[in-house]
């Protein structure tokens, strides 16, 4: 079949190439585009789903036109159905769990409050250092600042008093009235 003077295979191939290139660009620069143009609010961006749908639609239609001698409308309808199911499965099994994992990071940080850690980079009074926290999942080095009026030197044990903007607020365990969680 011919559309706009070009065979459908050619249109589908060009559509697949363009949609794939746009998808890759969006993967790398999507956050920038979303912040500049204020779209895509939510855990999974609609643009990602649309670009993936068009890439799958064009790719499957190209393969269908190349391999089968069915009517082009039947091939297009089948490609639409398979693309819809594929994008739906991709959203449920891949994109949504990734978005939920990003949102759970804040909750995990709150679990550190009251825990004991060790200073691995000296924390000046008006600056930032780093604290090593050991948990059942391994060790994490997290930025920290002191809540006291004194510097906390490397190797000192501290207790996490709170969290502010992803930075641990710590105090020397010798000066703290709180007992650390185990």
TrEMBL record:
Q: Does the keyword Signal apply?
A: no
Q: Which residues cross the membrane?
A: 12-29, 36-63, 69-94
Gene3D superfamilies recorded for this chain?
Nucleic acid-binding proteins
Membrane protein NfeD2 N-terminal transmembrane domain: residues covered: 3-103
What the entry lists under InterPro entries is as follows: NA-bd_OB-fold, NfeD2_TM
Organism listed in the record: Bacillus luti
Protein name, per record = Phosphate ABC transporter permease
Q: Chloroplast as a keyword?
A: no
Q: Sorted alphabetically, which keywords does the UniProt record give?
A: Membrane, Transmembrane, Transmembrane helix
Secretion signal: which residues?
Answer: none
Q: Name one Pfam family in it.
A: NfeD_TM
């Amino acid at each position: 079949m011919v559309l706009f003077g070009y065979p459908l295979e050619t249109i589908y191939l060009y559509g697949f190439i363009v949609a794939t290139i746009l998808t890759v660009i969006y993967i790398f620069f999507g956050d920038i585009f979303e912040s500049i143009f204020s779209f895509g609010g939510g855990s999974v961006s609609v643009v990602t789903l649309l670009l993936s749908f068009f890439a799958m639609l064009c790719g499957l239609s190209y393969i269908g036109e190349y391999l089968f001698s069915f009517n082009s409308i039947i091939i297009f309808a089948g490609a639409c159905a398979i693309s819809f199911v594929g994008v739906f499965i991709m959203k449920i099994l891949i994109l949504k769990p990734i978005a939920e994992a990003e949102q759970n990071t804040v909750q995990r940080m709150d679990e550190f409050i009251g825990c004991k850690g060790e200073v691995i980079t000296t924390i000046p009074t008006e600056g930032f250092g780093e604290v090593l926290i050991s948990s059942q999942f391994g060790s994490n080095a997290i930025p920290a600042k002191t809540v006291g009026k004194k510097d906390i030197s490397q190797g000192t044990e501290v207790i996490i008093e709170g969290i502010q903007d992803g930075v641990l607020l710590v105090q020397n365990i010798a000066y703290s009235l709180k007992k650390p969680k185990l």
